[in-house]
Amino acid sequence: MHIGGKMNTKIQEKERLYKKMEENFPKFLKDLDRIVSIPSFLKENDDRFPFGEDIQKALETMLDICKELGLKTFIDPEGYYGYAEIGEGEKLVGVLGHLDVVPPGDLNKWENPPFEPIIKDGKYYGRGSQDDKGPTLAAIYALKTLLDCGFNLNYRVRFIFGTDEENLWRDMPRYVEKEEMPTVGFTPDSKFPLIYAEKGLLQCKLTAKNQSGMVFKGGDAFNSVPSSILVEKTAGLVQALDKLKYEYTEKDNKIEIIGKSVHAQVAETGVNAINRYLHALSLSGVETKSGKFIVENLIGYNFAEPIFGEVKDEHSGELKFNVGKIEFTPENEILCIDMRIPVTYDKEIIVKTLTEKAKEYGFEYSQHDYLKSIYTPLDSELVKTLMGAYQEVTGDMESQPIAGGGATYARAINNCVAFGYVLPNSPKTEHQPNEYIILDDMKMAMKIYMKAFEKFRV
């Protein structure tokens, strides 16, 4: 009877917790509207804010939401980061999320404007809904629900908000330099059950003299496969596109070559519109250094094998290679490249190989950004705690921690991993048109985060 009584009590507590979560969910959605409606992608050259007024507004709005929910808040006077904290004790659990987003890209590919969030067929649509505003707010509401139900928080939780995750990570070094480091942490910016290793992220530019006379540019970000590129129409280009069976549309004297945008960490699953344009351009008889480089090394290959050979390891899979942006100025051809390097490979060998290959085509290599790979042992207390929370809530004992190609804030501090929000069999829509979250998945994520906060208790 005693055991049965304890079981009944636990069931009742869980039911009460989940009922409160449902009660809080409409308010969660309203607060999510407040931040998703802000077009917080990078706009530099702003004298007042490091990454533009909209990113600053998103940071201030998130801190306002946290303050309304009863958390103490702080904003960096320079606008690089902010945080919200609650609880008491020496132990500090950090939850790291970012409030900047990638640009929406071609607005014609959105069924609804990207910064006018809408719920349809059980899905919440809007840029940042999955990456990373929705998951970050879900973690906040998970803790709020626990506290509403009388949870004894005998440690501190600090939600740390970044502003430059999609670009050069100029935010987190400022936090690390100025603020207290969490004892342990996670970032809700990937997928469940847990990411225990992340590939090295290397972004670079290849620059060569432009002898073609062409001037154009395309692509939105290093870390997105470009979904389209709008270029001058010529009869030769149209013939080449038809021969290659590449999708395109005609607009006045322009041709829009169609691709499929995905995150650069899974570049091989997308369709790169820049690569297709350079391929068709070459076939039409227009010679460029970029075209020769792309046709010979990327067309027909998933992982740039002609450059590197096979680069993969057991933990994290293949090297990923994405031409995210291109620009032909009157002087130069510039390719902007994003690579995800397997955790056991030496970055310098990758750089040396690419530099030598690029030189054959007249390109010079320059580094744009680099984040080293990370690896958290599977038998660490952090991994066991979070995996326990995931398994207890979902009952999924088959899914195992995975290595990923994404670059999350887990790299920013020690003893931190990426933990959710996307469930194993649900789609990742980050960086794509019509980005969305499944509402039932978000509720499941909240339940998992609640259990994680319970397990962090001292």
TrEMBL record:
Pfam families: Peptidase_M20. Keywords: Dipeptidase, Hydrolase, Metal-binding, Metalloprotease, Protease, Zinc. Coiled coil: none annotated. GO terms for biological process: L-arginine biosynthetic process; proteolysis. The keyword Metal-binding applies. GO terms for molecular function: acetylornithine deacetylase activity; dipeptidase activity; metallopeptidase activity; zinc ion binding. InterPro entries: ArgE/DapE_CS, Bact_exopeptidase_dim_dom, M20A_pepV-rel, Peptidase_M20, Peptidase_M20A. The keyword Zinc applies. Its cofactor is Zn(2+). SUPFAM superfamilies: Bacterial exopeptidase dimerisation domain (SSF55031), Zn-dependent exopeptidases (SSF53187). Belongs to the peptidase M20A family. NCBIfam families: dipeptidaselike (TIGR01887). This is Dipeptidase. The lineage of its organism: Bacteria, Fusobacteriati, Fusobacteriota, Fusobacteriia, Fusobacteriales.
